[in-house]
Amino acid sequence: MNIVIPIITFVVGAVAGFAIGIFYLRKQFSNMAMDQKQIQQMARQMGMNLNQKQLNQMSRMMNNMNNKKKKIIESRYGK
């Protein structure tokens, strides 16, 4: 009996932690959109200077990536 309670507690904690982790990741993926100012700032930090055409291209790429991730998450875990 002394060993059963810690095992049950561990299993319940692992399941609860997994559920909370999935909820948190879903929320983070939905909030991951970056505007053009943030993209420009990130590029400057990496030593790049983007013109307007490149900035628009990066914005489109980021939006497409976010849309694909949302579709994958929704197909795996539901809405």
From TrEMBL:
InterPro entries: UPF0154. It is found in: Membrane. One of its GO terms (cellular component) is membrane. Keywords: Coiled coil, Membrane, Transmembrane, Transmembrane helix. It comes from Tepidibacillus fermentans. The keyword Coiled coil applies. This is YneF family protein. The chain crosses the membrane at residues 6-25. It comes from the Bacteria. It is a single-pass membrane protein. Belongs to the UPF0154 family. Its main location: membrane. Residues 48-75 form a coiled coil. It holds the Pfam family UPF0154.
